[in-house]
Design goal:
Elements lengths: L1 H4 L3 H11 L8 E5 L2 E7 H8 L2 H4 L10 H13 L3 E9 L8 E5 L10 E4 L6 H18 L6 H38 L4 E3 L17 E3 L4 H51 L1
Length: about 270
């Protein structure tokens, strides 16, 4: 934009700091007229200018309070590096889809408002990546024109990579065969390089050399606890049933004896 070019080098440097990743500015993604834009809240920008990372910058205006930070952000807003927008609902059916943004005519800086970026920042990384990709493609196309020494080096490098991949698959097959044999001969079996497929470093993948395939102890404890609780509950149920039987057995003879006494009284 023309207004951004009129800004002083200090203002451009502050805008570049906020647009970069060192500022710690919380960036959100919105949609303005079908185009995705990054936007942020004013409060987050004030915190970025009051952070220690901004104090380390040279050639930028000093910021010691929130008022100074808001005044500096108002100057950046006047050069249209970012514009004040109104945030609406999601543009898609999902709640996580980008929010709809709309530019507000009254442009002023407020910590409670949202602002969309219209400045892409430094593009040297994008240019460097594009040049590197073009160089790699040209080098691949011009491979027949390479010197014999370079072509021989690339051939050895490719053979070495294929050899490492083949060695990895060979180790995986050998350890599986050895495990099956040890399961039959010496149960529960032995794993060679048990950390081979674990989420560890390259060296740790080959440590230890071998390990018994022992089941986890936690699962046994849980099963044992369940069995013990089942047995105890069964014993409690059987005990209560025995008590009830005893009580019923005791109650029945008492009722019969009472009937016999009543008959004896009537005969007398």
């Amino acid at each position: 934009m023309e207004q951004q070019q009129k800004a002083s080098p200090e203002i451009k440097k502050v805008a570049q700091f906020l647009r970069g990743g060192n500022a710690g500015l919380k960036i959100r993604v919105g949609a303005l007229n079908g185009k995705r834009l990054d936007y942020f809240k004013g409060k987050s920008a004030v915190k970025a200018l009051l952070s220690p990372a901004y104090d380390k910058l040279k050639g930028v205006p000093a910021v010691t309070s929130e008022e100074e930070a808001q005044n500096l952000l108002s100057q950046i807003n006047s050069y249209a590096f970012f514009l004040r927008v109104q945030r609406g609902g999601p543009t898609g059916s999902a709640s996580s889809s980008p929010k709809a943004l709309q530019i507000i005519q009254d442009q002023k800086f407020d910590v409670k408002e949202y602002y969309a970026w219209f400045y892409e920042g430094s593009q040297w990384t994008t240019y460097a990546g594009g040049i590197l990709m073009v160089a790699i493609m040209l080098a691949g196309v011009m491979f027949p024109l390479w010197p014999p020494i370079m072509r021989l080096g690339v051939w050895y490098l490719s053979i070495g990579m294929l050899g490492l991949i083949g060695l990895f698959f060979a180790i995986a097959i050998v350890r599986l065969i050895f495990y099956i044999i040890t399961v039959i001969v010496a149960s529960p079996g032995i794993w060679i390089f048990p950390q081979l497929f674990a989420d560890v470093g390259f060296i740790d993948s080959f440590i230890p050399l071998w390990e018994w395939d022992l089941p986890k102890k936690k699962g046994k404890k849980k099963k044992g606890d369940k069995k013990e609780t089942g047995k105890s509950s069964a014993v409690e149920k059987n005990g209560s049933a025995a008590v009830e039987d005893d009580e019923s057995a005791d109650s029945r003879p008492q009722s019969r004896s009472a009937r016999i006494e009543e008959v004896d009284d009537e005969d007398a």
